[in-house]
């Protein structure tokens, strides 16, 4: 059983509709979340919306592991680009994840999860490779259409560090502070590293794929909202369908 999680409904695209079309689905409500169980492009999956933030994401990952007995978790959604090379419309597949707002210094080094001796959590290599291949295939098939429809510029796939925190980053100062302390950070979001920590603690593989909706600057609120309503679903559906079919 594969757990598939997004924060917001637009970030799942057509996945639940596709599961309904493929056969019987079952919905379980738990902790104010709906978990939809069924066939996702040939893969047995439980799909849910975590809502926004690290606590929501951690609670959801824990339920997926303990109640639904998932073998792995994939998170899909949008994020702000942090690195100068990462543009709106690009896709980032996480290799490692870190909580950029975690700071128990001077007791522990900045960003380290106290008593876990770790600040960076690795995404599972096999799942991440398969996601990256699905992203490349999606852009190869749809890249021109995306450029024409949404005025994104030659979208690319990046792999590396994704940072998470309970803040929507939307200012030049905050963006540059992040770049200063974490020069290898590619993207910022609000859930991924929390899922990665819970999955690490329980030995469950996880992967995170993020489409860039904004560049975490003053234009981020408008860019995020426009991207989420107009485009995010197209990306998620295109990436998830290719990824899931490759797992069958
Ligand atoms: N007001 C919004 C809240 C969005 S929070 C609403 O109406 O729902 C932003 C969501 O997208 C989070 O789930 C986060 O993971 C991701 N995200 C996109 N851009 C981000 C950015 N610049 N900073 C932090 N998170 C971002």
From TrEMBL:
Keywords: Amino-acid biosynthesis, Hydrolase, Methionine biosynthesis
One of the record's GO cellular component terms: cytosol
InterPro entries the record matches: MTA_SAH_Nsdase (IPR010049), Nucleoside_phosphorylase_d (IPR000845), Nucleoside_phosphorylase_sf (IPR035994)
GO biological process: L-methionine salvage from methylthioadenosine; L-methionine salvage from S-adenosylmethionine; nucleoside catabolic process
EC number in record: 3.2.2.9
Nucleoside phosphorylase domain boundaries: 2-244
Gene Ontology MF, one: methylthioadenosine nucleosidase activity
Pathway: Amino-acid biosynthesis; L-methionine biosynthesis via salvage pathway; S-methyl-5-thio-alpha-D-ribose 1-phosphate from S-methyl-5'-thioadenosine (hydrolase route): step 1/2
Pfam families assigned: PNP_UDP_1
NCBIfam families per the UniProt record, alphabetical: MTA_SAH-Nsdase, PRK05584.1
Record's protein name: adenosylhomocysteine nucleosidase
């Amino acid at each position: 059983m594969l757990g598939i999680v997004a924060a917001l409904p637009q970030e799942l695209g057509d996945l639940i509709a596709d599961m309904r079309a493929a056969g019987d689905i079952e919905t379980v409500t738990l902790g104010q979340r709906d978990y939809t169980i069924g066939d996702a492009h040939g893969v047995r999956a439980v799909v849910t919306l975590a809502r926004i933030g690290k606590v929501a994401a951690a609670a959801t990952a824990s339920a997926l592991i303990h109640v639904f007995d998932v073998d792995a978790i994939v998170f899909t959604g949008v994020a702000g680009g942090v690195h100068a090379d990462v543009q709106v419309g690009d896709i980032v597949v996480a290799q490692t994840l870190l909580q950029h707002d975690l700071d128990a210094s001077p007791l522990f080094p900045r960003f380290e999860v106290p008593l876990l001796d770790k600040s960076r959590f690795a995404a599972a290599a096999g799942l991440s490779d398969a996601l990256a291949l699905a992203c490349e295939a999606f852009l190869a098939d749809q890249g021109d259409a995306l450029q024409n429809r949404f005025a994104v510029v030659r979208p690319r796939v990046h792999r590396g560090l994704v940072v998470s925190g309970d803040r929507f980053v939307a200012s030049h100062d905050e963006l540059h502070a992040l770049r200063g302390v974490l020069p290898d950070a590619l993207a910022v979001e609000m859930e991924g590293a929390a899922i990665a920590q819970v999955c690490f603690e329980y030995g469950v593989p996880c992967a995170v794929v993020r489409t860039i909706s904004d560049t975490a600057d003053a234009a981020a609120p408008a860019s995020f909202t426009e991207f989420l309503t107009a485009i995010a679903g197209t990306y998620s559906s295109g990436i998830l369908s290719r990824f899931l079919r490759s797992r069958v």
